[in-house]
Each structure stands twice: as C-alpha cells, then as structure tokens.
C-alpha cells in the first residue's frame, strides 16, 4: 500500500468522526492538501465547511485560522501591518491571520476587490509584502475560500483571472435524510464542534504528508494521457455554450489532481478515469457560459460532462 493510499484511508477514517457523509467533497479537500493548491468551497451556510477544514488541520497537526469577510475588510486585516511601539520607539510587525497553514476565508465574495487581490497574491506567490519587506508563508499554506451560492446582494464576484488561481471548486450539498439523522444523534450524544480534541481524532506527522506529496510527483503519465488532458481543455474553448474555456493552467491542475487521485488509490500510474474524476472540480469555476446558455439552464458541470463524453478516451 502506498503512502498516499494509507494517508487517504487514515483521513477518511478520522474525519468521519467529525463529519457525517459528504465523502466526495472531503476527498477533494484532501486532494487540495496533497497537491499543495487552494480551493473555492461553495455551499449554503450550515454544511460544516469550516468544521471540515478545522478537522483537516487537526489531522495533519497544522495551524488553522479563519477570516470572516465583510465589505469593510482591508488588506492589512488579513496580512498584518507594522505598528509603532511607543515604549521602544520602533515599529513591530503584527502578523495577520494569513500567517498560518490552513486559512479559511469565509464568504470571500463579500470582501472588496482590493482585499481579494491581496489574498490572491499571497496564494500565488506564497509570500506577503508589508511596507516593502517580503515575508514567506508556511510550507503547507493553503486557502479554503467559501462562497454562498444563493445570496449575492452586497457581494463582489471574483473575476475570471482570480478564479483561475484556485486549484478546484468544491461543491458541498445538503446531506441525505439518513446522514442528517446521524448528525442529530451525534449532537444528542454530546458532540461539540468547538471542542474537536474531544472527538478522538488521531493526527499524523507532517512528514507523512510530505512523503505522500513526493509519491504523487512520481506518478507516471503516458503521452497519450497528456494529449487527452490537452484535448479536454481545448474542447471547452470551442464548446457552443462556452464563451471562455479552460486555460493552460487548468490543464496543469487537471493533471496534478488526477495524479493525486491515482496515488490515493494505490497506483503509481495514471488512467483515464482519474482524469475524468478530476475534471469537474478543476474545470467548473473556469468556464464562463454564454448568456443564452445561462437562460437555458445549462450549468458548467453539465458542460464538463458533455465535453468528457465528446472526447475520445485513449486506448
């Protein structure tokens, strides 16, 4: 059994002590950590988005911080600022919440574009600049930015260029009746999401995560599968319902996520099914649909499914 496969099994077991159901979404959150990217997490309030990221931080013994976005949030509120100390007559750096391992940015579309840009710059460069001095961010720094899909009043939608910087967009849906009953039973039995340490979640060392990342980098990709990834991305660009298709960065991210899927399933080689599984979360936030497609009720996920069916699978 590979390191990534063992790690995935451990995470599924431990996070199951905290989160009920949502297995596909939780697997995608793990893939973000394994690849070293950032995620846009979409779901209505109350679906345990924050709890899931906190649980991941506890499993990997990583630092966790949360930022609640509001229209008056300034860049310094996230990255920090130099503050003059009257006692020492010198400036002291007060680090913002961005100096952490896992950063949950709640309702990122409620913060103004200037603050969004400061955050997204840190995501891309993995460093922040304060008064001309650059400060590196932690090795495992990852942003999980949430969005409410139904409430748009007073929001600042992320432009396409910024959306493209997110590795995946994860959709979290309502649990089914059985899972929701299980959630109620857990709370009846005394589960408290604010006291995760009492849930008995077992941590793993950061070295295990690093070993899994190295293993993923060694997954073999045959030339025919590279051509398949390119064909999928290119097909989105001339799809009738799409005005802006997947970028070359999307193709790179598709390959990385597919390799992570292969490794978590215990393989050191890529197969077409890995790519097809990775395509929806990697592509869905990068496709801009034409207005007439929106009016017809066509969704990005539907387009991705149709694109996958239209491109020949390599033998």
SSE order and pairing:
Layout: H1 3-15, H2 23-35, E1 39-42, H3 49-59, E2 64-68, H4 75-79, E3 80-85, E4 90-95, E5 102-106, H5 113-125, E6 127-130, E7 133-136, E8 142-147, H6 160-163, E9 168-171, H7 177-188, H8 206-217, H9 223-237, E10 242-244, H10 248-264, H11 272-283, E11 288-289, H12 291-295, H13 300-310
Parallel strand pairs: 1-8, 1-9, 2-5, 5-8
Antiparallel strand pairs: 3-4, 6-7, 10-11
Helix pairs in contact: 1-2, 1-8, 2-10, 8-10, 9-10, 10-11, 11-13
List its salient traits.
single chain; 315 residues; alpha/beta; five-stranded parallel β-sheet; 13 helices; 16% strand
Fraction of residues in helices?
40-55%
Name the quaternary structure.
single chain
Q: What is the strand tally?
A: 11
Order of helices and strands: HHEHEHEEEHEEEHEHHHEHHEHH
State the secondary-structure class. Answer: alpha/beta
Q: Are there runs of 5+ residues with pLDDT below 50, and where? A: none
Shape verdict: globular
Structure commentary:
It contains 13 helices and eleven strands. The chain is of the alpha/beta class. The strands form four sheets. It has a five-stranded parallel beta sheet. Strands 3-4 form a two-stranded antiparallel ribbon. A hairpin with a 2-residue loop joins β6 and β7. α1 packs across α2 and α1 packs across α8.
Characterize this entry briefly:
The chain is of the alpha/beta class and 315 residues long. The chain is 45% helix and 16% strand.
């Amino acid at each position: 059994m590979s390191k990534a496969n063992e790690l995935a099994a451990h995470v599924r077991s431990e996070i199951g002590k905290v989160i009920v159901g949502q297995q596909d979404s939780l697997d995608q959150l793990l893939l973000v950590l394994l690849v070293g990217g950032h995620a846009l997490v979409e779901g209505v309030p109350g679906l345990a988005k924050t709890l899931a990221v906190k649980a991941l931080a506890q499993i990997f013994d990583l630092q966790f911080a949360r930022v609640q976005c509001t229209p008056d949030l300034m860049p310094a509120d996230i990255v920090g600022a130099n503050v003059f100390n009257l006692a020492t007559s010198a400036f002291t750096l007060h680090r913002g919440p961005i100096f952490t391992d896992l950063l949950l940015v709640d309702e990122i579309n409620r913060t103004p574009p200037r603050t969004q840009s400061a955050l997204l710059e840190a995501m891309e460069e993995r460093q922040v600049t304060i008064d001309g001095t650059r400060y590196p961010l932690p090795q495992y720094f990852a942003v999980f930015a949430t969005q409410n899909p139904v409430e748009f009043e007073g929001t600042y939608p992320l432009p396409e260029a910024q959306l493209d910087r997110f590795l995946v967009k994860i959709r979290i849906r309502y649990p089914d009746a059985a899972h929701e009953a299980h959630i109620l039973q857990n709370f009846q039995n005394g589960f408290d999401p604010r006291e995760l340490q009492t849930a008995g979640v077992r941590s793993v060392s950061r070295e295990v995560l690093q070993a899994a990342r190295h293993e993923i980098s060694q997954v073999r990709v045959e030339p025919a599968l590279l051509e398949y990834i390119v064909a999928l991305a290119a097909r989105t660009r001339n799809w009738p319902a799409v005005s802006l298709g997947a970028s070359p960065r999307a193709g790179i991210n598709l390959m990385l996520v597919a390799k992570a899927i292969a490794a978590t399933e215990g393989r050191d080689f890529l197969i077409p099914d890995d790519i097809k599984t990775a395509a929806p979360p990697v592509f869905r936030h990068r496709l801009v649909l034409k207005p007439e497609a929106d009016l017809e009720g066509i969704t990005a996920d539907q387009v991705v499914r149709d694109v996958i069916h239209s491109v020949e699978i390599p033998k």
